[in-house]
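Trying the structure run again after the queue cleared.
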Amino acid sequence: MKKLLIALLTVCCVCLNLTALANPKLTVKDEEIKQNDNFLLVYPKVTLDGKQVIGDKINTYFARDSQMTVQRYQEERAKGIRKTFEQKYTQSYYGKHYLCFLYDGYMFYKGAAHPLSWRGGVTFDLKTGADVKWQDLIKDGDKEAFTLAAINDKIFNSKEKWRGWLFRDFQGLKKLPKTYYLDTKGYIHFIFGQYEIAPYAAGIIDLNMEKQCK
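Done. Tokens:
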């Protein structure tokens, strides 16, 4: 009987420890903003159980960013500029320390030869609710993999199809990239837009650094 009680207490302690380590329940709801038939912005509204203040800060970020996007669109329309615009966020990573959303969008100006597309990400620190730079996510042992020289080496030696599309006169980045996101496993990806390091036909370039966030 005593052994049984010890075993049950051990199981309970393990369960309590696992519960303590588990991430708070995350709920993501899509919010839509439409302007005429040519504008659609879909952004997330998050709820983190037990972390309302953090959730509110994240939601404030998206609300302000969306308001600015709508304002720019309306200002262009007031000037007679016509375009189709669409952007949508999707959750790409949720871990112990960080929450990341990936966004994809495109716009097509009336009379333009082709649309422009983009991709990016925004990552939030779950302790503060603030959006963070990729430099804040690097493990101490991985810092050498994120120097300018190391990132350029990763670009030139990539086995991805886009490698063959780089501009012929591209000799490497002159400064560290800014646009990044975390994939479902927490790996850090850098994003390079159309025309940034390769022609339009190459599309959006997604460079997986194969290093996980801390």
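The chain has a mean pLDDT of 91. Worth checking whether this holds up in the mutant runs.
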